[in-house]
Recover the amino acids of this structure.
């Protein structure tokens, strides 16, 4: 977790700091997103379960395939 100057939780890395998945209450009402974006991991996972591939989603959202994979993996870990 990252904390602000008042020692309040500011940002959380639920899959660890090495993962691009971040929870920030100021972005998307605290829904997990891909760091540096407002793209929610749940949206990516839902599209991936459809007919969209990792490469298509990366192109569509202007992200790296590794970021898309991390979002999908994170959402799968919640379902398990």
């Amino acid at each position: 977790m990252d904390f602000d100057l008042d020692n309040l939780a500011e940002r959380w890395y639920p899959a660890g700091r090495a993962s691009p998945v971040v929870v920030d209450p100021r972005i998307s009402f605290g829904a997990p997103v891909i760091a540096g974006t407002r793209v929610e991991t749940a949206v990516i996972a839902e599209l991936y379960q459809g007919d969209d591939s990792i490469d298509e989603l990366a192109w569509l959202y202007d992200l790296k395939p590794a970021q898309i994979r991390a979002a999908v993996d994170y959402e799968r870990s919640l379902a398990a």
Observations:
- Residues 47 and 67 are 14 Å apart (CA to CA).
- The chain has a mean pLDDT of 92.
